[in-house]
Write a structure and sequence with these properties.
Layout lengths: L1 H5 L4 E5 L2 H10 L4 E6 L4 E6 L4 E5 L7 H4 L2 E6 L2 H4 L5 H11 E9 L17
Parallel strand pairs: 1-4, 5-6
Antiparallel strand pairs: 2-3, 3-4
Amino acid sequence: LVHLYNKGHTVIGVEGVPFVVEQFFRENNLEYEKVSLPDIRGWKYNTKDNRLCIYACDFFCLTPEMVGQIDAVYDRGSLEAINVGDRQGYVKLMQSLLGKDFRYVLNAYEYDDSEFQGPPRNL
């Protein structure tokens, strides 16, 4: 996230644990504002210039109205971490968030389920 932010991009992230988000901002020496989002029982963290925003909430609570249209995704653990039964919901949500000419990078694992049950879960 911070690499893309430092290159001048506007970046949105999602994390389930507020402490992890605050740690990210501290470790990267980024000043931030924290806003409560009671409708989704979460928080929104923004840099002062509003180019880096991280939501601390249940991923499935995000909406297109909250984050706008997304041009690029780097998924480094979301799809493989969620329960297999929730994957279709993940796909539907991502489809609602993606812009017309999007780019998508998915970091995933493939292995024999009989040897390891995850998480990360086999795709």
